[in-house]
Amino acid sequence: MALIDLPPPPKPAGLYRPAIIAGEKVYLSGFGPRRDDGSPLVGQVGRDLDLAAAQAVARNIGLTILSVLQDTLGDLDRVAQVIRITGMVACGPDFTQHPKIIDGCSLLLAEVLGERGAHARMAYGVSSLPNGSPVAIDCVCLIRP
């Protein structure tokens, strides 16, 4: 597993938990990107962010996912397998490169967790996301005791 500096896990922005352990799985809430000061990054892909910037945003969310996993599980070694991520991209109706954006997160998970970071995935476009986020990603993982 690659060593990486993780940001602190975000505080919930509503009446929910960042993660819930249910049996052998951990379900993560959807997360958007944060700036270094913790404030949300806003915009629409294709209008305010280009492909490269949106991929960097997805990578940023991947760091948040890893941070929440570490905080919830105590150790990333407890992640047996990332099962699935779902990526939502705020964009206009003509934008079609959703999977390339979510690759930013997928590549990070594989980089840090190796084969355990490989996963099934859904990526799609939406007209808006909470707090004006350009990208949001959730995650489900199989965990070790």
From TrEMBL:
Domain Endoribonuclease L-PSP/chorismate mutase-like: residue ranges: 5-133
Q: CDD domains given for it?
A: YjgF_YER057c_UK114_like_1
Gene3D superfamilies named in the record: RutC-like
Superkingdom, natural source: Bacteria
InterPro entries in the record, alphabetically?
A: Endoribo_LPSP/chorism_mut-like (IPR013813), RutC-like_sf (IPR035959)
Q: Which SUPFAM superfamilies match?
A: YjgF-like (SSF55298)
- One matching Pfam family: YjgF_endoribonc
Q: What is this protein called?
A: Enamine deaminase RidA, house cleaning of reactive enamine intermediates, YjgF/YER057c/UK114 family
Query: Lineage of the source organism?
Result: Bacteria, Pseudomonadati, Pseudomonadota, Alphaproteobacteria, Hyphomicrobiales
